[in-house]
Amino acid sequence: MSRFNRRSTFQVSALSSIICLVILGVTITYINAFSWMPYVSILGVLSYVCCYGVGLGPIPYFIGSELFEVGPRPIAMALGSMANWGGNFLIAMVFPLLQDKIGPASFYIFSAITLMLLIFIRLYLPETRGRDASEVAQLIDSGFRSRPLASPINSSVADTSGNEEMKAM
């Protein structure tokens, strides 16, 4: 894993997982229409497992250990693992209900959630490869943005606290 950028691998994994989930939604919808559709569906499941296993599964643990300095790292990693397993439990409980109610369209919901994750990764997650925790902490302190174009808004430009209304009274 040290040869690849975590952020780009995470993005490729998320994008390919979205594609696999959409393929699953389409193939299961039309599974009886074509004799070869079940095979494409199986290929979609296997591809999703591979795409998830390359990035979405393990990379949060890599990045989590690189985002936090030694002091808060154990608590942060424990909370991250708890959120991961809580999410797995939630998916295991919700998926059968969704499958009963909306059928194969449930895969589109999960692909939309993964798309939101991809957008979050693209906008906010810094690259952690080759950086120690103090360097990553400086990146986060400078606005937790992954790109210079997404720099934090200067709070002195606009007063959104509502104090202007109070001054007018």
Automatic annotation (TrEMBL):
Key words of the record: Membrane, Sugar transport, Transmembrane, Transmembrane helix, Transport
Record domain Major facilitator superfamily (MFS) profile: where: 1-129
Organism of this sequence: Popillia japonica
Cross-referenced Gene3D superfamilies: MFS general substrate transporter like domains (1.20.1250.20)
Domain of life, per lineage: Eukaryota
InterPro entries on file: GLUT, MFS_dom, MFS_sugar_transport-like, MFS_trans_sf
Record's GO cellular component terms: membrane
Name of the protein in its database record: Sugar transporter
PANTHER family in UniProt: FI08437P-RELATED (PTHR23503:SF127), SOLUTE CARRIER FAMILY 2 (PTHR23503)
Localization, UniProt: Membrane
Keyword Transmembrane: yes
Membrane topology: Multi-pass membrane protein
Any GO molecular function: hexose transmembrane transporter activity
Parts of the chain that traverse the membrane: 12-33, 39-63, 75-99, 105-125
Coiled-coil ranges from the UniProt annotation: none
Record-linked Pfam families: Sugar_tr
